Each structure stands twice: as C-alpha cells, then as structure tokens.
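TL;DR need structure tokens for one chain.
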Amino acid sequence: MPDELYYLAFLFEFYAATVVTYFALGFGLTWLNDRNPERKIQKGRASGKRRKAEIRQSLASMFSACLPVTIGLYAQQKGWAPAPWTFNWWAALPLFILVMFLYDTWFYFMHRLLHTKWLYPLHALHHKSVAPTIWSTYSEDVLDNFLLQSFSAVIVFVVPFPPAILVGHRLFEHFNGMLGHCGFEYLASSTARYPSPLLCTTFHDQHHSGFRYNYGNYFSFWDRVLGTVSPDYDQRVKKFEDEVPSLTFRHGAPAPAAQENSA
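>> reply
TL;DR here they are.
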C-alpha cells in the first residue's frame, strides 16, 4: 500500500478511535459525576447548557487533533525528518516524560499566544464554556486546536521520537484533556500542589473561570516561574483534599442548584 493511502487510513482510524473513546469516557465520567455532586468544582454554575453545541464542535475539532501526529509520522516515514530512534521498553518511560515536558512547554507558550488580542478570536469559542464539562474538551475552533496539537508535526524535526511514543502521547493527551475539562475534582492530592509540579482538574477549570491564569497542561512549572498560576490554586486543592467526602459509586445527594444563565 502506498504511504499516502496508509497514513490516510491511519488518520481516519485514529479519528474513529478518538471519537469512540470521547463518548465512552464522556458517558462514564458523567455517570460518576452524578454520584459525586460534592466534587463539582464550580458549584452553583450550570455546565450543561451548551452540551449539544460542544459535541458538534468536538466532532470537527477531534479530527484536527489527530492530523498533526499523522503528519509527523508521515514525515518520518518519507525521510523528511530525522530517522526516529529505535523503540526500547527500557527507554520508554524517560522518553515519555521528555515528550510530556516538551509538549507542556509548547502548550504553555502557544496557549499564551492564543490569549493575545491577535489570536484570541480563534480561542474565544473554547472559553464560551466557562464551567467546562467533559463534552467541552474539544469544543474549540478547528485551527485553534490544530495549533495547540501541531507539536506532533513539529517535534519530529527536532527530537526523533519513536512513532510509539508519538502515538502514545496523543492518546494520553486525549484522556488527560477530557479529565482536565470534566468539571469535577477526582485527582486532588499533595502531588497536585506546590512544591510538586503536577496538577489536577482544578487547575484548568480555574483557567476557564478566571481566564488569565493557569496556562499549562501537565505541569504548573511554567505558570509558577512566569507568575501566571492562580493565587488560590494550591489552597483550592488542599480544600478538596480536606473536605470532600470519599468517592462513591452510589447515588448521593442531588447536585447543588445551578444558575442556568451563568455559563
């Protein structure tokens, strides 16, 4: 099979897998959220008014999220980029940590650019979801999403990551993005606040509600160094640790009343 047909088939198969897991995780986390209403981050703010519009937009934007990794793999195959390193299991973890750090750096600075007056029109659609939900993960302009995800098409010319690392990272980013937008906190712990560089769902949720803080994706490193971390982020995480009841899989109390005109 010609390379072009092979990677075109890969693109559509990867897109199909992304769509299937988007709905599977979406319904699964919605089921869990309904049983843990006290874990909602923005209590008192409605978050479901735009669901249908978010899903429609996500179906388009998920395609643009799959395109960059396909371009990167194709460039490697055609010899336009340096030959990828041979994949070894013993090197998989350090390479994955490296790709996470490099992507987080890309994401932070590209995200800051998208918040400038010149590029914000591309990013504004995503911020219509003031109280994000798992369905709003990909609710963004197709070009906006492509710019954030184009890391995979660029990094192959700088660091010759094996294809397995590039594909694995895109899958990880898919699930991480959905957890980061789910609107409910399940990951609050001491590892998600200072001095740890890791973060939890509250981090990106505050970006949607506060707008000018928390531009990072996996780590709070760049936000802390450059002074863009939300002033009360660590305190919010600690409060979730101390006050939120244990996770339950049974129906609990009804969710706090939402103001339907506030999101």
